[in-house]
Amino acid sequence: MSKGKRRDNGDGSIWEGSKGHWRGRIDINGKTYYRRGSERGEVKRKLEQLKRDAERGSSLVVEHWTVAEWLDHWLLTKRTKAPSTLQLWETNIRLHINPHVGSIPLKKLTAERLDHWLVELEDEGVGDRTRQLGVTILRMALQLAEDRGKVARNVAKTVERPSTARKRRDAPDADKVRALLRAVEDDLRLQVFVLLTLGLGFRKGEALGLQWQDINLETGEITVNRHVVHLNAAYGGLQQREGAKTAAGERESPIHELLSAALQRLSRQQKEEYVAGVWAKTRALRTSARKYDNPSSPPNDPCCWVLATRSGTMPSPDNITRDFKHYAYVPAWASVRRSTPYATITRACWPNWACPYGSRWNCSATAAN
Q1: Looking at the predicted structure, is the pLDDT value of residue 246 above 80?
Q2: Least-confidence region, from 34-43, 128-137, 139-148, 360-369
Q3: Least confident of 183-192, 286-295, 344-353
Q4: pLDDT exceeds 70 at position 249
């Protein structure tokens, strides 16, 4: 009887164990690893995979990661990212990824399951941008898993991301702008906010981050040096960051006459409120000011916030949005009442839109009347 082919060194050995199971053994780098399966071929494939993993330098220890556990670990490796980015990723994982695929073993996640996951999100009414972000997160996390030998390949790379068309936002016409300015004329703080976003294209956080030291009424220029964000308490809560949101936003902007007059009136109003003790009384009643350890500066201090709260503290994006929507519900502005300030008054539309009170920057305070 002819003898079978001899096994090469390092191929391991396979034998049939009890209860019909097959077992295999292989020695790699002085250590012995065992695998078992219901068929001989299955055990052989597992031993061959171990051998390939060893050649690639991957870990040979069996780790039972789930998708949710690996995403948590991946977030830890990204802790140097901006807090707002981490909060965005964590929210997407918690709400849209883990409830659907989080319990699946990492090694058993397939592209087909991710295809079904995207369909499930769409059926739930989740938007294209949110689903697109979910795929991006999985691609980054699984790429790290592939690089560290936790999975054989990054299955998320083969999943097609939902396509999103960039929506064009048209600038509001002159009548709507006049109606908005009339609606906020009784709230000087909000009037300045609208003029900053509408006239100069400031983002919401950039407008809230202005301090009086950033404004030079003599030269008629405003410099963007910081912006304000409001995150979950786990990521720092209400905070300021240096610079604009993007590099393109770090700029000096001219002050038109209408904004200049509003800023001067706002400065006088802040000083009057401070002298009358309004700031101190309001701060004593505000738990949020103490919660975020948000100190106030007197109106004569260059570090005083231009759009300071009634207690003189750092303004919150959530509060300014709430106030804007309150005034935006007036009938004259009802057609855009559901828009956020930056969505309605977008930087992209400003170059194609002329100031309804005259030339682009030469707006007069009397024209508003």
Answers
A1: no
A2: 360-369
A3: 344-353
A4: no
- pTM summary value: 0.62
Q: Which of 25, 30, 3 is nearest to 14 (CA)?
A: 25
Residue 38 pLDDT more than 80?
A: yes
The larger pLDDT score, comparing residue 265 to residue 55, is at: 265
**Which architecture, in CATH terms, is 174-368?**
Orthogonal Bundle (1.10)
Nearest to 182 by CA among 357, 360, 358: 357
Residue type, 242: E
Which pLDDT belongs to residue 6?
Answer: 47
Q: What is the pLDDT of residues 137-167, one digit of tens each?
A: 999 999 999 988 888 899 999 999 988 777 7
Contact between 307 and 231 (Cβ < 8 Å): no
Residue 367 has pLDDT above 70, yes or no: no
User: Which CATH topology does 67-158 take?
Assistant: DNA polymerase; domain 1 (1.10.150)
**HEC sequence for the chain:** CCCCCCCCCCCCEEEECHHHCEEEEEEECCEEEEEEECCHHHHHHHHHHHHHHHHHCCCCCCCCCEHHHHHHHHHHHCCCCCHHHHHHHHHHHHHHHHHHHCCCEHHHCCHHHHHHHHHHHHHCCCCHHHHHHHHHHHHHHHHHHHHCCCCCCCHHHHCCCCCCCCCCCCCCCHHHHHHHHHHCCCCHHHHHHHHHHHHHCCCHHHHHCCEHHHEECCCCEEECCEEEEECCHHHCCEEEEECCCCHHHCCEEECCHHHHHHHHHHHHHHHHHHHCCHHHHHHHHCHHHHHCCCCCCCCCCCCCECCCCCCCCCCCHHHHHHHHHHHHCCHHHHHHCCCCHHHHCCHHHHHHCCCCCECCCCECHHHHC
Tell me the C-alpha distance between 300 and 304, whole Å: 7
